[in-house]
Amino acid sequence: MLTVSQVTKAFGGRTLFEDASLQINPGDRIGLIGPNGAGKSTLFSLILGDNAPDEGTVSLQRGRTIGFLPQETAPSGEETVLQLATSISPAMAAAYATMREFPDEHCAEHHEASSVFLEHDGYNLEAKAKRILAGLAFRDSDHHRPARTMSGGWIMRAHLARLLVMEPDLLMLDEPTNHLDLETLGWFQAHLSEYPGALLVISHDRAFLNAVCDGMVEISRQHLHRYRGNYDDYLVEKKARDEQYLAAYKNQQREIEHLQDFINRFRAKASKAAQAQERIKQLARIKRLPPPENSEATVKFRFPQPPRGGQRTMVLEHVRQAYGDHVVYEDLNITVERGQRTVLVGPNGAGKSTLLKILAGLLPLEGGTRTEGHNVSVGYFAQHRTDTLDVRRTVLEEAMDGASGVSEQSVRTVLGSFLFSGEAVFKNVGVLSGGEKSRLALVKLLLRPPNLLLLDEPTTHLDMASINALVAALAPYEGTLVFVSHDVHFIRSLATTVLHINAGRLTPYAGDYDYYLEKSGAASDRGGLVAALKNHRPAEKPAAHAADKPKLGLKEIKQQRRAEAEARKAAAAALRQSQSRHRELEQRIMALEARQRELATILESAPNNATSFPLHRELADLTEELEQANEEWNNLSASMATTA
User: Fold this and answer.
1) Residue 55 counted as domain residue
2) Boundary residue ending a domain (234, 264, 281)
3) Cβ pair 399, 447 in contact under 8 A
4) How far is CA 549 from CA 294, 544, 546, in A?
5) CB 480, CB 453: distance < 8 Å
6) What angle in degrees, to the nearest 10, is found between the helix axes of 108-119 and 122-135?
7) Are residues 54 and 187 in the same domain?
8) Burial of 641 by CB count in 10 Å (0-12 exposed, 13-18 middle, 19+ buried)?
9) What mean pLDDT is predicted for residues 459-481?
């Protein structure tokens, strides 16, 4: 479907790709990985035709379509959210806009536009768009809001909805989870699991890659290296490949050293001159392997520890907090104990970031009290809170400020693991991007940690190596940690308790994230969150010794792979059938529950006589059908969770 053939591309004298090739077929689900600056966005631009390769070709099969979701910005004009979600083509967008501008069905403009609308199956398209918008947490009241009046994150969601409605043959996503809360992420992953086209995804969220990808492409040494399986499978195979490459590199270095030693010893000796010249030619013919890349994911540095505080780190009592008429919390009570590692989860807008700001003392309370414990020092980190940085200093100077007792070399080691390496540490803070400033603020916080650390989405703008470095820094942290994150791997690595927030209500779970998924499963939204998130980690496979494996010929290997492919295809078909029935049941349950509430309201005010008997009978039948539908839904959910 898409072929990248022997592509070479350089920017500013730096070669990103050299003779790189990649084939994407229908149904492929590929994660594109590599450190920041490796060329992931450049590869996207080459595929989209925004850039041309210096050498080689990028070709898309005739008639195939591509959809692309950028990482940060996407345009929005005067169209509403629903208009944006249904704008799968310029003709469709124009028809939709004309029909709204000329609502009179008898006028010529409306009639002509409605013909185009019907030609594109517009009414079914609108229904599909509404279902997808609901999955992405848009309310019905948002449908007719101008998209430009919403935040950047919600505009990105609307564009994501448009792509999911459009269903291009190749869907290209650049960090699509950045603007999704965990509940929406669960729905999105479940939706992608049955997406009919091919996927090419850039993401630093390893749990997301595990959930949606069956192949990984790593940009390394200016080439594209393909791996089978999800991200965890990639790590296993990459380790084996790296070990093989290291062995090959060492063997080549020994050969080069041996040849060079012979040349040095016998070049000037007449009896050996011919042999020395032959060794020189032999040495020149060797295509030298570049040194192995440093794949060390964790930073070799022990971060300072904070001073010990009191047992009660922070107490909020009867707190009221509102933004205008919107009340976020009413009579909020919470005690944060020393040493807790709590992740705040819940839908966007539930109040997670607001709670962090209340704990940090950044919001004046409208009611109630905030009491800090004995000897508590508070540190707050958010993506947009970088105004405390001194723009006149260099990165290194700013990181060194306040990091007493830490050597410059140690600080540079930490900066390197957070993407400030080499000459980058001498850049002026004033010229840094927003993401770079966020990373620098995070480094400063880690080098002089408080004993109450409040983090709001700390992994945004970090690549996987830096996320691992952050986990390594926080793992031995002896203070109290409260954080918000949508990165499941990061949450699993650090959280020991979970606090679910929704509509101002707090529900604590005295266990880690998997405990939360298990205990909240029965009461969670019917979006498939548990099924989508609970099984991110693949089952451990027993190690097999090479001697125990029978040696297969080429024919047997091909037959085995064909059988495995057919088994995967059959399993995927069965899963899709279950998911389809799952969605049907969801819709039916929602309709039954709505009618149940309607009947209950009618019967509350209706006289208890013969006229109300049919309503009572309908309610009884409906309740029985609802119980059966819920039972089937729960059984399907459990079955899908074990096969996901």
Assistant:
1) yes
2) 234
3) yes
4) 32, 7, 5
5) yes
6) 70
7) yes
8) middle
9) 87
Phi and psi, residue 388, nearest 5°: -85, -10
Q: What is the 3-state secondary structure (H, E, C) of 263-300?
A: HHHHCCCHHHHHHHHHHHHHHHHCCCCCCCCCCCCCCC
Model pLDDT for residues 109-136, shown as the tens digit of each residue: 887 878 877 776 666 788 899 999 999 9
3-state SS class at 622: helix
User: Please, are residues 582 and 635 in contact by the beta-carbon 8 Å criterion?
Assistant: no
Amino acid at 259: L
Instruction: Please tell me which residue, 56 or 303, carries the higher pLDDT value.
Output: 56
Any idea what the CATH number is for the domain that residue 164 is in?
3.40.50.300
The residue out of 234, 267, 282 marking a domain boundary is 234
Range list of β-strands (E), 131-184: 170-174
Report d(CA 235, CA 89) in Å as an integer.
40
Q: Which of 538, 539, 523 is nearest to 637 (CA)?
A: 523
- What phi and psi values does residue 528 have, to the nearest 5 degrees? 80, 25
Structure tokens, 571: 């399993």
The Cα–Cα gap between 88 and 24 comes to 23
SS3 351: coil
Q: Are residues 624 and 478 in the same domain?
A: no
Same domain, 51 and 199: yes
> Measured between alpha carbons, how far is residue 273 from residues 91, 263, 285 in Å?
77, 9, 19
3-state helix, strand, coil in the chain (%, to 5): 50, 20, 35
Residue bearing tokens 């600080």: 411
Count of the separate structural domains present in the chain: 3
Q: Which two tokens stand for residue 230?
A: 């999800």
Residues in the chain: 644
Q: Widest CA span of the chain, in angstroms?
A: 122
- Listed in sequence order, the residues at least 6 apart from 394 whose beta carbon sits closer than 8 Å to its beta carbon are 425, 426, 427, 428, 429
Q: Where does the pLDDT of residue 47 fall: very low under 50, low under 70, confident under 90, or very high at 90 and above?
A: very high
Tokens of 167: 């269903």
Please tell me whether residues 495 and 632 are part of one structural domain.
no
Instruction: Name residue 475's amino acid.
Output: A
Report yes or no on 591 lying in a domain: yes
pTM strictly above 0.85: no
In this prediction, residue 202 has a pLDDT band, given cuts at 50, 70 and 90, of very high
Sheet holding 312-323, edge to edge: 326-337, 312-323, 367-372
DSSP-derived letter for residue 428 is B
490 lies in the same domain as 557: no
560: tokens are 């085995």
Does residue 54 sit in the same domain as residue 153? Answer: yes
Q: Which domain holds residue 426?
A: 312-533
Q: Is residue 38 part of a domain?
A: yes
**410/466 same-domain check:** yes
- The answer to whether position 242 is within a domain reads no
**In a shared domain, residues 429 and 488:** yes
